[in-house]
Each structure stands twice: as C-alpha cells, then as structure tokens.
Specification:
mainly alpha; Tetracycline Repressor, domain 2; 10 helices; 72% helix; HTH_TetR; Tet_transcr_reg_TetR-rel_C_sf
Length: 223
C-alpha cells in the first residue's frame, strides 16, 4: 500500500492556515472595536464616522468596512462587548447558596473594576441609554431583563428565608448600577472635585468600601 502524505489529503494541510486566519480576523475585529469604543465615547454615535475610526485604526476605510460593513454594525459590536462583560458580572448575583453579603460585595467589586478598567465602554453604554436606547434597546430588553428577573428571584428567596431585610430588590440593583457606573461616567467631575487629573486606585477602593458598607447595612436582616 503506498504511503499517503498528509498534504495529499484534500483540505487537511490547509486547516492550520484557515485556523490562523480565523484567529487573525478575530483579533483584528477586536482591535478595531477597541479603537471605536473610545471614539464613540468621545464623539457619540452621530459624531463618529467610519472614516475617522479607520484613520485612528491606521487602516483604509475600505479595509475597515470589509470587517464592519456599516457604522451601526461596528457600534453594535462595541455594545455587545460591553453587555457581555456586564452580564457576566451580573450572573454572580444569582447564587442563592452563598452568603448574600459576600455575593453583593463581589458584584460591587466587579462593577467598579469594570468602571476603572473599561471607562470608555461604560460611557458608550451610558450615552446609548441617555439617548433613549434607540439603536440597542431591543438587545438590552432581551438580554438584561431575563437575568435581572433571575437575580430578583434570588433576592426574594433570601427575604423569604430571613437572610436579608425586606426590600425592593429591583431598585437596590438599580442603585448599585448607578453608584458603581458613576465612577466611569462621571470620573472627570469626581477628579475635578478632588483636585486631581484623574481618579486613583485608592479613590476606587474608597468608593468600593463606602458602597459596600451602605448596601450591607441596607440588606441587614433585623436581629
């Protein structure tokens, strides 16, 4: 029987190259989105053009549009990335087996870490909401609402079991969102008030300690 060389099997030798192309494309698309998120945060959706993003990404407009045919497609990718990260952090709330205080502490820490590490992403998301979620409302409704209801169900079980004080879980989560996200969306104002060029890690740590203390005092079950 003659020896069969790998490169004689149709498609086999090309597989690694195809895989590399997929990896390279994914990386390039992510790099473009990383440039776009800052521009959308600084200039808004209407004030940002594909041509400007392409120039900032050091590529031609035609080349960029091969990966993202429209500005809305690129904007959607940016917001998808923000929401993916945000929802991953939200999933930690829906864990009724752990202590409520520890679950909420971890969630607050995760949300503040996102504000510190991804301020441009947070601002793009906030701007979309402030403008009425005209371009991304359906995605928010279909993805955030089910997870929020799941989290609220866990809170209600904790309340029924006497593990936390009776409270409106929906508005507690709203308040945690507002407090943590403000450290990204209003960081410039905070820095001005503190007479700094920008917030420091200590500022985020101090904010975290204060928010955690307030939330744990709110959920504390009567003794």
């Amino acid at each position: 029987m003659p020896e069969v060389k790998l490169n004689m099997v149709p498609g086999l030798a090309a597989a690694p190259k195809v895989k590399r192309r997929v990896i390279n494309r994914d990386k390039l698309e992510a790099d473009i989105a990383a440039v776009a998120v800052r521009m959308f945060a600084e200039c808004g959706y209407e004030g940002t053009s594909i041509a400007a993003i392409a120039e900032a990404a050091d590529m031609s407009k035609q080349n960029l549009m091969y990966y993202y045919p429209t500005k809305q497609a690129l904007y959607q990718r940016v917001l998808d990335d923000v929401l993916d990260d945000w929802l991953q952090r939200m999933e930690s709330l829906a864990d009724e087996e752990h202590e409520p205080g520890e679950v909420l502490r971890a969630y607050i820490q995760a949300k503040l870490r996102f504000s510190r590490e991804q301020p441009w992403a947070s601002k793009v998301y906030a701007m979309e909401i402030i403008s009425g979620a005209q371009l991304y409302g359906e995605q928010i409704k279909s993805r955030v609402v089910p997870l929020l209801r799941k989290d609220i169900d866990v809170f209600e079980k904790w309340i029924a079991a006497g593990r936390i004080a009776p409270l409106n879980a929906t508005h507690l989560i709203f308040m945690i969102w507002a407090m943590t996200q403000s450290y990204a969306d209003f960081s410039a104002q905070m820095a001005l008030v503190l007479d700094k060029k920008q917030l420091t890690r200590k500022d985020y740590d101090d904010g975290e300690a204060t928010i955690v203390r307030m939330v744990l005092a709110t959920i504390s079950a009567p003794g």
